[in-house]
Write a structure and sequence with these properties.
heterodimer; A: 138 residues; mainly alpha; two-stranded antiparallel sheet; 2 strands; 64% helix; rod-shaped; B: 186 residues; elongated
């Protein structure tokens, strides 16, 4: 069957001219789209920067090791004990080695303390806890 | 006339006037093609603009081979087909099964028979309609249409045949139409 009438019918369909200002509107859409893309890009960059900064801050403040949780009451007791130990140490006139460790905590030669008759197993535990809590303040 | 390649080169350098020159040069062709495909001038204009915007975004990837017209037709066809799929999905979702021909929106002055042709054409499935219009109106060969649609030339041939068959179902020839009118007048 000859379909030329079909082809002609399609070809003869009226086509409207582009409405006035077609190119201007295309350019306006182009600018709007570019601006929107730039805004999205900036927003992405800003978000990435903010996240990086937040990550860096978090890493900086994140505790490297668990901090001891000691109540005020326990701390008061520990301080009282250390004062008492100090007094005993002063009376023994034994040279006790006290040195600063990597984190600024005091490391006390407990053997020297025992040899001098100051402190015991409980005392050693007290020292360790206090050193961990107060760091270099001792 | 400034060659397409020069305008493309300038447009790549963000020269808006050069891009506007390309739009001026090809807008009528794209608009005509998309009006036949959609049956709706306002929708066709929107899709034409979208095709140009997509072209601008891909300027860096476009390789000038003296076939900018065919390249734009390819872009326009893809945009049309994906939009058609979206419309179909929306129609299904909202249970609007009826064929949308957008007759209310058209601003074209047309005869009754042309209106029948336009409506019949919009009833042909989009993936058959596009190769038919590219072949009949744009004068592309089977191979060129195959490139535009990303299918084999044999597929193009069979789709065009099916499009014609579908169109014949909805449309009488002008002679049959005249005969019918004469019979009704008696």
């Amino acid at each position: 069957m000859n379909d030329s009438w079909l082809d002609d019918a399609i070809r003869n369909l009226p086509v409207p001219p582009a409405s006035r200002g077609f190119s201007e509107r295309t350019l306006a859409r182009l600018r709007a789209r570019s601006a929107s893309r730039r805004a999205r890009w900036r927003f992405g960059l800003l978000t990435a920067s903010a996240l990086t900064f937040a990550g860096a801050v978090l890493l900086a403040v994140w505790p490297s090791e668990p901090q001891p949780s000691v109540t005020e009451e326990e701390l008061k007791g520990l301080r009282a004990e250390i004062r008492s130990l100090r007094r005993e140490m002063e009376n023994t006139a034994v040279n006790i080695e006290v040195s600063h460790g990597e984190r600024g905590t005091l490391r006390v030669d407990m053997d020297a303390l025992f040899r001098a008759g100051v402190g015991d197993e409980t005392g050693a535990a007290t020292w360790n806890a206090l050193v961990a809590v107060e760091g270099g303040e001792l | 006339m400034i060659a397409d390649s020069i305008l493309v080169e300038r447009a790549r350098a963000h020269d808006e006037l050069a891009f506007a020159g390309l739009v001026e040069r090809y807008k009528a062709r794209l608009l005509g093609y998309l009006t036949r495909l959609t049956g709706c001038p306002s929708r066709a204009e929107d899709l034409t603009q979208e095709a140009f915007l997509r072209f601008y975004e891909r300027l860096d990837r476009y390789e000038e081979q003296g076939k900018l017209g065919a390249y734009l037709l390819r872009l326009a066809t893809r945009i049309f087909l994906s939009e058609e799929r979206r419309r179909r999905r929306r129609a299904l979702l909202s249970l609007l099964i009826q064929v949308e021909t957008d007759t209310s929106e058209t601003s074209i002055i047309e005869h009754a028979y042309q209106r029948q042709v336009r409506e019949a054409l919009t009833r042909v499935p989009a993936h058959y309609r596009a190769p038919l219009v590219l072949f009949v109106v744009e004068g592309l060969t089977y191979h060129e249409i195959a490139e535009v649609l990303g299918v084999r030339p044999g597929t193009v041939k069979s789709r065009i045949a099916r499009a014609r068959a579908a169109l014949r179902l909805h449309l009488a020839s002008p002679e049959e139409e005249q005969l019918h009118e004469r019979l009704v007048a008696r």
